[in-house]
Amino acid sequence: MANTLKLEIVTPESKVYSEDVDMVTLPGIEGEMGIFPMHVPLMTQLVSGEVGVRKGGQDFFLAVGDGFVEVTSERVSILTDMAVKAENIDETKAEADRQRAEARLAEKLDDEEVATVKAALDHSLAQLKVKRRHP
Fold it and tell me: Are 18 and 74 part of one and the same domain?
């Protein structure tokens, strides 16, 4: 029986993470999920939030955007539009992005612009949550 999972996190720009880990927590559409080796296979939608990774007794965290997750007994594959490790988050920039997005939402926008601005807001809020919980 496997003691680890292969975790892969991929964005449109790059492969952000690819290593064997002990456990993954992630924000699914139905709430936070914990994934251990030998998990039942599933596919689900990922929502903006925090992914937690435990490897060798150490925890680290990433802010992620919307996407999809595929889980098998040996692998967790995350396809997302954003993934930033906590230590790489610029809190000042994320706060400025949040304020800018909230100001834009107060303007008269078409449906496509609203969706784009809401996605930007979700990204900044996820980054702020992760950075403030794990400075």
Answer: yes
In terms of domains, do 81 and 119 share one?
no
Residue 105 has pLDDT above 90, yes or no: no
Domain of residue 110 covers 87-133
- Mark whether 16 and 44 lie in a shared domain: yes
pLDDT in tens, 87-100: 999 999 999 999 99
Residues 6+ apart with CB under 8 A from 22: 3, 4, 5, 36, 37, 54, 55, 56, 57
Whether residues 60 and 14 share a domain: the answer is yes
The confidence band for 135, taking pLDDT boundaries of 50, 70 and 90, is confident
Residue 18's nearest CA partner among 78, 58, 80 is: 78
Q: Can you say whether the dihedral through the CA atoms of 97, 99, 101, 104 is positive or negative?
A: negative
Long-range contact pairs involving 99-102 (C-beta distance under 8 Å, separation at least 24) = none
Identify whether residues 21 and 66 lie together within a single domain: yes
